Amino acid sequence: MFGYRISWAQLAWFGHRLSGIGVLVYLFMHIVENATLAFGPDVYDFTQTLFRNLPIRLGEILLMAALVYHSLNGLRVIVMDFWPATTAWYRPLTYGVIIATIAAMIPLGLIMIAPYAPWGRIL
Amino acid sequence: MTAQGRRIWPVVGDPMRRNPSRAARARPVEPGFERFMWYFMRISGLLLVFLALGHMLIMHVLVALTGQEISFAFVTSRWGSPFWRIYDLLLLLLAMIHGVNGARIIVGDYVERGGLRAFLVGIMLAAAFVWLLLGILVVATFDPNTAKFVGPFS
């Protein structure tokens, strides 16, 4: 994809862009979806039923992961931009962002997938 | 690593090193639109961490944990409070500007031709403006009593 050996720093940068585009595309869809509120309860409640299935739920979990990653990595960018001395730890900070994203997505993903999972409940 | 590469900031030479965060772009030196947007991305980003993550946590985690469901009645109750309307309007406004500026920067990185770049950015800005207006209208004018009107598409 890059044509050369990639580092975690480059992957973090690429992931920031990819997750940002993903969330932006979702935002456009989300505004259209919410605009059906103007047509009253029947239309809106019907629209919501279109979102209650496994593929959409998996997409929502992916959206949550994109948002968590983009947020944490964005905080790292802010910290490193405004406190340049912290760039000395850019590698552990980047690993930390990736590990924290995975760690946060374990409970969040479990809660979100619960209605569609064989066990069917959250706890 | 060269001695020059070890300097923290500002580092000259390799563009990847010149940027302190090594994740986004370096702060533009001249004051102006690009520098304003550099600051805007970071300030709005910090606010969006709370606004957007908070929104997702409420809608996808707390709603599930409390056994609720997102419906017209849920929205009516939620937007009955000015706090949530202002929260959602602020989230919408910041997310759209932050997102479209990010997309503009990505297009600028990959599209070299000035005409094509201006065309793509123009389309994105126009779409963002229309969608933002639609979003603001939906949040600001939502009224559960008048919303019973069924529009031309149903």
Features:
heterodimer; A: 123 residues; mainly alpha; 73% helix; elongated; B: 154 residues; 3 helical TM bundles of succinate and fumarate reductases; disordered N terminus; disordered C terminus
Characterise the protein shown here.
The complex is a heterodimer of chains A (123) and B (154). Chain A is mostly helical. Chain A has one domain (8-116): 3 helical TM bundles of succinate and fumarate reductases, CATH 1.20.1300.10. Chain A has four helices and no strands. In chain A, helix 1 (8-35) crosses helix 3 (54-82) and helix 3 (54-82) runs antiparallel to helix 4 (90-113). Chain A is elongated, with a radius of gyration of 18 Å. The mean pLDDT of chain A is 90. The longest helix of chain B has 33 residues, at 33-65. By secondary structure, chain B is mainly alpha-helical. Chain B has one domain: Fumarate reductase/succinate dehydrogenase, transmembrane subunit (3 helical TM bundles of succinate and fumarate reductases, Up-down Bundle). The termini of chain B are far apart. Helix content of chain B is 68%, strand content 0%. The relative contact order of chain B is 0.08. Chain B has six helices and no strands. The chains are: A mainly alpha (123), B mainly alpha (154).
